[in-house]
Design brief:
GO terms for molecular function: cobalamin binding; metal ion binding. This protein has about 120 residues and is α/β, with parallel strands linked by helices. It is about 45% helix and about 15% strand.
Length: about 120
């Protein structure tokens, strides 16, 4: 799984903690962090070939960055796109907005992420 924040979102502690916990539990997690250009995300996917991408957003005004990133990933990889999991407090009161981003799943917490990973594990 590749984990990163969308666009210029700098609130990364939650995603970092989740990434570390999943890594300790045996999942292969590559944490890219913040301010990662979309082209670099696409390149990382080409190199690492992850089954999952986890994108976190804390502030609502970064939702457009996530939509752009998700669209770029899906356009580039088509039906071979990794499964995209979106989460973060930006969606706490806006779960319906998450559905419009193009993400495959919305995760409220680490338990949701675990369920998604287990459900879609090869």
């Amino acid at each position: 799984m590749i984990a990163l924040n969308a666009g210029a979102e700098l609130h990364n502690i939650g995603l970092r903690m989740i990434s570390d916990i999943l890594d300790i539990e045996g999942w292969n997690v590559i944490y890219l962090g913040c301010n990662v250009p979309v082209q670099s995300v696409v390149k990382a996917i080409n190199i690492e070939k992850p089954k999952f991408i986890a994108i976190s957003i804390t502030l609502e005004y970064h939702i457009d960055s996530a939509i752009y990133m998700i669209s770029a990933i899906k356009n580039h990889f088509g039906k071979n796109s990794p499964i995209i999991i979106l989460g973060g407090s930006a969606f706490s009161n806006y779960a319906k907005v998450c559905e419009k981003t193009g993400a495959d799943y919305y995760a409220r917490d680490i338990d949701d992420i675990r369920d998604i990973l287990k459900k879609n594990k090869l």
